[in-house]
Amino acid sequence: MNRDPLLWNKILGAVLGALLIGTLSAFVADLLYGQKHGEAEEVFLSLVSVEPSSAEPNSAEASSSDTSAATLEPEVPLAERLAQADVAHGKNISRKCVACHTFTPDGANRIGPNLWAVAGRKVAAVSGFQYSKAMKSFGGTWADERLEAFLKRPKEAVAGTKMNFVGIKKAQDRADIIAWLQTLR
Fold it and tell me: What DSSP line would sit under 89-117, residue for residue?
């Protein structure tokens, strides 16, 4: 019987390779999905080389109290943000959605339904997609305000949704995405 002198090296290499792949996969998943609101968006945008729409404070003086003060500022109404919306920026931001959704006519359903012509469409209306009970009972249509609320915090807008996404932190980014979704007809 002719034994390969490198057999144990090959076995050890395969085991270490599998562990490395598993560790890297967990690390990337944590970067994309395990961060606080907004951080995952920034990580994803840096991975796809898309610049965020506005500069984040990078000085040492920026503190958590500055961040909480910014969240207390009144939000510009959606209609005003839509009037200023940047459709191209909305399309770029939507890149984070392509892992679960398609945006083409007759696009395939993935983890989530095809989002072609979603703006103004009935909720849970894509044939062949298995919506959660919560989404089915949400009913109505995807009006701008409903899209805004869902994009901001999906699990708060539709309690019990299967969509596992933290939401989009910046109000203008949400308006940009909605404006882009309105072009998909």
Answer: HHHHHGGGGTTT---STTPPP-SS---TT
Residue 52 clears pLDDT 60, i.e. is over it: no
pLDDT digits (tens, 9 = 90+) for 122-142: 999 999 999 999 999 999 999
Q: Is 97 helix (H, G, I), strand (E, B) or coil?
A: helix
pLDDT value at 45 more than 70:
no
pTM of the complete model beyond 0.70 = no
Q: Determine the Cα–Cα distance for residues 177 and 86; give it in Å rounded to an integer.
A: 8
Backbone angles phi, psi at 9, to 5 degrees: -65, -40
C-alpha count within 13 angstroms, C-beta hemisphere, residue 180: 19
Please name the residues in contact with 171: beta carbons below 8 A apart, sequence gap of 6 or more.
75, 76, 81, 152
The dihedral sign for the CA sequence 97, 99, 101, 106: positive
